[in-house]
Amino acid sequence: MAHLVQSVFFASTNTCQYYPPRFATPNEAAAFEAECTKTVSQLLALCFPPVADSTRYHCSGRIVSVDSSMQWYYLGCALCSKAAIDYDGVDKWCDDHRRLVPQQTQNFYKLRVTVDDNTGSAAFVLLGRAADLLVGLTANDLSTRFPYQRNVLPQELLALEGRDFTFDVQLPKPEYGARGPPEFTVLAVNEQEQPNSCSPTLGRRARNAMPHTPPPN
């Protein structure tokens, strides 16, 4: 049985029931669910040409590396998790709330991981609650152990490498196309202890494959 990493939006591997009740039959819901299940290469293909797409796609793959070239947490507004900007060297400003939030800031994850299946690899970005649940520890708690090491990955983050997950992701916004390779925002995560039987691509992949990494960076 797959071990479930509780997600932000659902706590079941049967995600069909969490879509809006707009289907006349269970078969229609299942067909929609299947249409939203993509391989890594299929997700990448959806990004070219760039289009606005708010669909929640499912993709199974292995985290092969956690990017150590970027800071793994940032200081954000505790109310909305958006980046808190230094205002005067003491207070912080939240653009979302359009006001100072001097006593309402905390650290949040921004993890960029490389996810691979046997069709390709891509960058997935984990933020906020989805990252908290995946790591099993909030960024605020973990960062207190490494207060001056935002560019050094703790063992708790390195331990994600080599593990298989099913990710719920959204495509990058169209304007991202000019900024480099696509990065997919992770909305929720389930950990897979066995090959995903719903995904022929992942099911055929060898289990002993060896690992191969809106706030500012």
Automatic annotation (TrEMBL):
Stretches for region Disordered: 191-217
Protein name: Uncharacterized protein
InterPro entries: Euk_RPA1_DBD_C, NA-bd_OB-fold
Superkingdom of origin organism: Eukaryota
Compositional bias ranges of the Polar residues kind: 191-200
The organism of origin for this protein: Linum tenue
